[in-house]
Amino acid sequence: MAKRKQGLGWIEWLRGWMYVIYEMLFQRITASHLHNPLELPPLSDLTCIVTGSTSGIGREIARQLAEAGAHVVMAVRNPKAAHELINQWSASWHGLPLNIEVMQLDLLSLDSVVTFANAWNARLAPLHVLINNAGIFSIGEPQKFSKDGFEEHMQVNHLAPALLSILLLPSLIRGSPSRIINVNSVMHYVGFVDTEDMNAVTGKRKYSSLLGYTSSKLAQVMFSSVLHKRLPVEAGVNVVCVSPGIVHTNVARDLPRIVQAAYHLIPYFIFSAQEGSRSALFSATDPQVPEYCELLKADEWPVCAFISQDCRPTNPSEEAHSVETSFEVWEKTLEMIGLPSDAVERLIEGKEVKCRYGTQND
Hints:
Elements: H1 10-30, E1 47-51, H2 56-67, E2 71-76, H3 79-92, E3 100-104, H4 110-121, E4 129-132, H5 152-167, H6 169-174, E5 178-183, H7 209-230, E6 237-242, H8 257-263, H9 266-269, H10 273-276, H11 278-285, H12 288-298, E7 305-307, H13 323-336, H14 343-348
Parallel strand pairs: 1-2, 1-4, 2-3, 4-5, 5-6, 6-7
């Protein structure tokens, strides 16, 4: 029997970091053809849910979609902050009134995810775009676990968005053609997922926030690739991962010294939140994206669509192409989020699916 892989080989690791550094140094050049802000078509017939939309990239995504006429649902941990933002945006906006609402969602609680999805599905309204934007990178901090017992990066960046995406399938099918957009990261190139140790507790690999973050982002790509395969073309739901590029944030402390040195050149190299929002906005609205996804599906390509910070299709990491590991991540994820292995198939057929979390078990 083949020996189980324990981590990235040093050549893969080096190649991954070279990719990250290349992206940081040249992202502004490769994306120089894009307008800032990105020009959006009129979106008055679009309903979008955006998680983590009170700060950073998510705030830009929500504001620009709303200004283009979309019905935007800000799915946030802090509704008060979201309402304050809406008031600010409305005061400075001179077009038609913005169609934005706020719903509470805490990704550190899988109960909260189920409650949110149930509340949205109960409306029997179409959902056209789900943007899983919320994410955390707790730089340099010790390992932390959610009340559900999962390592926090893994839960917020992968498990909770995975649960949300699957539970909202009835609404996404109602709104088809529809899209699930996962805001991922170029950092997944240095990630490795050990499906026997998703919580990074066995000590096989020394925990760091960098390990937590990169493995959660790779897990998201792998899970998205299987979900993309499981959704039949007739369902009309496409799954896309996007890299926002390297956006200014306090990411530097936990990174190798050479990357830290590059961060001192931040003013020129690093994207603003507005620039970082472009790949997600493009993936959510461009008419050619579903065609590209369907092309990959027809070719039985091993990974889902991955759109780079320059709004062009790119290839996720070599590790992301491991079909075997991706299926292990899929199965393990469903087990962790309390869904049956046939959840997607049942929801596509219009059947009910019970989740281990949420109000129905109170």
